[in-house]
Amino acid sequence: MQEIIRSVQHGVLTLSLHRPDKKNALNLAMYRELTLALEQAQSDPQINVVLLQGSTACFTSGNDLADFLSAGELNAAHPVVRFLYTIAAFPKPIVAAVAGLAIGIGTTVLLHCDLVYAAPACRFQMPFTLLGLCPEAGSSLLLPHIAGYQRAAQYLLLAEPFTTEQAHQFGLVNEVLSAENLLPYAAKKAQQLAALPSDAVQRSKALLKAPQRQQVKQVIADELVDFQQLLQSDHCQQQLKAFFSKR
């Protein structure tokens, strides 16, 4: 089964997560495919915008933990690490359409998207501390920047879930759409963006991102060091063991 479905229309590359039996949990093959698609889109003059989406039922339940752990150390060759650096530095606009679950990377990846549209009943959560881990994907920098420190602490330290309404209120989500209108509306907005002069749009994104560009790269690297160390901790190992036992 194809787990990342690619399509191109009107200058928009749509990347659809398609692993419904696992609630679109991201495995290493999916990370590799996403990274390759972004790398190719970056150099393709026919692609002006990327649209990242799941289904009308689920965006992604996060990492496939067993697969994630099988890849070893979080170094530059790790598929997840390559994806994080690639999406953080991607020069063209990224639009996201989110429905259902947006867990872990399903939330933190949105911090690197330029426009985010969501269905009303989403569940966002970054459950890193529950597993004995720390933030990733630059979220320890980007979430406080968007939401303010106290709200970021609530979601990153307490690992509390939050709703689409809350995400909209603090600025992670641009607009809330009904589940049936979400994907068509996000596609329409992506095509609207792709129809604008690409050089002007990309330079504008570069200016918006410039103040934090190097800092984001450094914070991702710093988070990965702590994340790798915490993976080996007794608490994390116990939590992972309990997770796999329940499954």
Automatic annotation (TrEMBL):
The keyword Isomerase applies. SUPFAM superfamilies: ClpP/crotonase. It holds the Pfam family ECH_1. It is found in: Peroxisome. Its main location: other. Keywords: Isomerase, Peroxisome. It comes from the Bacteria. The keyword Metal-binding does not apply. This is Enoyl-CoA hydratase. It comes from Alishewanella tabrizica.
